[in-house]
Amino acid sequence: APGSKRILSTFTRWGPHGAVQPFSDEDASIETLSHCSSFSDAMSVADEGGEAGEETAQEDLQYKLNVFIDSTVDKSAKTRQGALDGLKAAMATRILYEFISDRRMTITDSIERCLKKGKGQEQCAAASLACLLCIQLGSGVESEEVFKTLKPIFKNILLDGAANIQTRQACATSLGLCTLVVEDDILDVYATMESFESLFMRSYVKEDGSRPSLNPQTTLLHTNALLSWALLLTICTGSQVKAVTHLPKLPRLLENDDVNMRIAAGETIALLFELARDMDPAFEYDDWEPLCDKLNSLATDCNKHRAKTDKRKQRSVFRDVLKAVEERDFQTETIRFSTERMTIDSWVRKRTYDAFREFVGSGMNYHLQANEFIRDVFELGPPVLVDAATLKSMKISRFERHLYNAAAFKARTKARNKFRDKRVDVGEF
């Protein structure tokens, strides 16, 4: 059978009862990475062989996942890294609740060990895996057990100035989403938000007008902390939102040299305005005009010393932020998945969607379709069951898709050439 040599090799090395046999770090790395690279094999078998193929694919997938879990305690850092990445890829693209539920504490112990004893990229992968584990388990007792173990570790690393900066950045993002998924005590949510505040406030322009001198990595840490703080703000009570004192201070971050920090600050300002107006339609901000002027300058930024891609990204975001502050308007976005669609129609919804998509990536549409917890977050109701015949009828052939794309490209080129034609009188525009 295809791949039987690889499977036999792995079985021999791990032993019939999972006991680790002596072999070199290089062999371990090659073996684990081999499983990582062949992870997609199990996903394509089901489409080819019907129910029998689906059962075979499921067995193959579970086998590989068990190998990944065992490899997270290997002596080789490269092997552990490959195992963490393999588990992340699986959880991002599949619903594995039954498989994970029985092994959640084993996986949690591995994450804890990698966070405490690993370095750099391994710690970052472990932090991301913790989030994906909570997303798979949903909001309940099982994920609470996981978070109870990992939360103190996240906070210790986050607030430890001597810890690896990339690990602190990953923990800032992971702690925010895990808190959103698991935490049911609002006081604990507030305490976590205070931890984030203690970080991003260090990027504020000082009262005397001077800017703090921070390196790009520290600025990224503060950006991640600000985004996680804003994410948790979406689940706060009305009284807590009303008590937020950061709105007068956040505009100071709009002057930051880092484009990602400026964008994070702008989106957070728009979110605060939306929440404040939901509570009080007559809400007014004292420095409204200076803020609008600053947002407008960022939406039309033409500074030559900034990269073109940064300016393009910044202008696009701040046009939407300016509309939100000035006109109470939001640029809606429609997300289509399977036979359904979801509308992103508020800054609260956008911040939540972006947070989940950061971890799930290209598997977001699949989770929107099948993950009951994420569907509950976005109020999509129970998963919609669609039979195979309906799905097949919805798909267009590759040739039809090619013809459609070719026609669209031709029409787009004609339209652009019309405006690029030098013979057109400039005065007509």
Automatic annotation (TrEMBL):
<protein>
    <submittedName>
        <fullName>Interferon-related developmental regulator 1</fullName>
    </submittedName>
</protein>
<dbReference type="Pfam" id="PF04836">
    <property type="entry name" value="IFRD_C"/>
</dbReference>
<dbReference type="InterPro" id="IPR039777">
    <property type="entry name" value="IFRD"/>
</dbReference>
<dbReference type="InterPro" id="IPR016024">
    <property type="entry name" value="ARM-type_fold"/>
</dbReference>
<dbReference type="Pfam" id="PF05004">
    <property type="entry name" value="IFRD"/>
</dbReference>
<dbReference type="InterPro" id="IPR007701">
    <property type="entry name" value="Interferon-rel_develop_reg_N"/>
</dbReference>
<dbReference type="InterPro" id="IPR006921">
    <property type="entry name" value="Interferon-rel_develop_reg_C"/>
</dbReference>
<feature type="domain" description="Interferon-related developmental regulator C-terminal">
    <location>
        <begin position="371"/>
        <end position="423"/>
    </location>
</feature>
<dbReference type="GO" id="GO:0005634">
    <property type="term" value="C:nucleus"/>
</dbReference>
<feature type="domain" description="Interferon-related developmental regulator N-terminal">
    <location>
        <begin position="32"/>
        <end position="326"/>
    </location>
</feature>
<dbReference type="InterPro" id="IPR011989">
    <property type="entry name" value="ARM-like"/>
</dbReference>
<comment type="similarity">
    <text>Belongs to the IFRD family.</text>
</comment>
